[in-house]
Amino acid sequence: MIQNNKGDIAHRMAPNSNEPLKNRSLRFSTSGKNQRADIEFVGRSAALTSILETIEAIAARKCPVIITGETGVGKELVARQIHNASDRSEKVFVPVDCTTLTGQLFESQLFGHVRGAFTGAVDATLGFFRAADGGTVFLDEISEIPLELQAKLLRVLQEGAVTPLGSTKSYPIDIRVLCATNTDLGEMLKEGTFRADLYYRLNVVSLEVPPLRQRKEDILPLAEYFLANQSTFYGEPPKVLSPTVKKLLLNYAWPGNVRELANAMERAYVLTTGQEIQPAVLPFEVIIADSPAYPNHDLPTLDEVKRKIITQTLEFTQGRKIAAAEILGIERRCLNRLIDKLDIPLSQTKKKAGS
Question: Which top CATH class is 214-354?
């Protein structure tokens, strides 16, 4: 969901604007010092508008925020936007992958260490918190921090100072802490795997980013946005979604959310030689999600699914087997065997493609 500012699918909604939010356009883009290009929200759903309103309300505050949502919905994008819309935007934004923080590495990476603090510590380091002084620290997947290390994080947040590993000297820090998780921290509290005092310290504001399947209005604007970026990247004419592809995109549940959609559009773009994106170049799981209903709600057989995919691909390539095999990711000999086994009439695929 983090993309360079390319293409012109929607107008930009400038930060700190006095214009009422309901009258603003669908794209919200800002960039601050030391940040990655422009960061944009694209879509038209009520959920997206609500997120933008919340960001506007909390950006200028220093309170911690917990951002929740499934993998791939854009939690880091939300965190970066909060930072970029705040008075800390000219300072650094430091993302931290909490899944990598264990034991001694936790203290060293977050709080720094002095020379000789442990084997291999040949030089002193600042750590993420001191490096982000004046800016924002984003703790991604906060739920992954082991229970025994959560107390150390809590102490730093309470005291506003860090003590590097191997040192007795503490250093004051001025940081804003934003967190993200795809886990229910409330359940972790009940299970005793997340400290209640740390949770209540961090959970001043909770912001949920809904999955893409719950905001279908955003799917096509996002898909077109990603295609426009590919067009700009390759310096080629724009490519458009066929009506059938649009239907497939809207019918798919997108378990990987925006990240999965971006990857699907990149695949579709590079495999399409013409101007219109056709179903055959979409990922397998997107195509079969639109399979017709079967009697008694039976699922299609594997052969039925294979026949549909191969037929659509051959129609797209106008019966050219080598091109179809390349799109499907199989050898031509394998494709020939499947055509024979599934009794796929090549003459019909050529005729339909040319009609």
Answer: mainly alpha
Judge whether residue 39 has pLDDT over 70: no
- One-letter amino acid of 74: G
pLDDT one-digit tens code per residue, 41-72: 898 999 999 999 999 999 999 999 999 999 99
DSSP string, 260-319: HHHHHHHHHHHH--SSEE-GGGS-HHHHHTTPPP-GGGPPPPHHHHHHHHHHHHHHHTTT
Q: Which residues contact 285 (CB under 8 A, 6 or more apart)?
A: 252
Give per-residue pLDDT as tens, 202-232: 999 999 999 999 999 999 999 999 999 999 9
pTM of the model: 0.73
Q: Which CATH number fits domain 61-210: 3.30.70.940, 3.90.226.10, 3.40.50.300, 3.40.50.720?
A: 3.40.50.300
Please, which contacts does 115-119 make with residues 24 or more away whose CB atoms are closer than 8 Å?
116/166, 117/164, 117/165, 117/166, 117/167, 118/165, 118/166
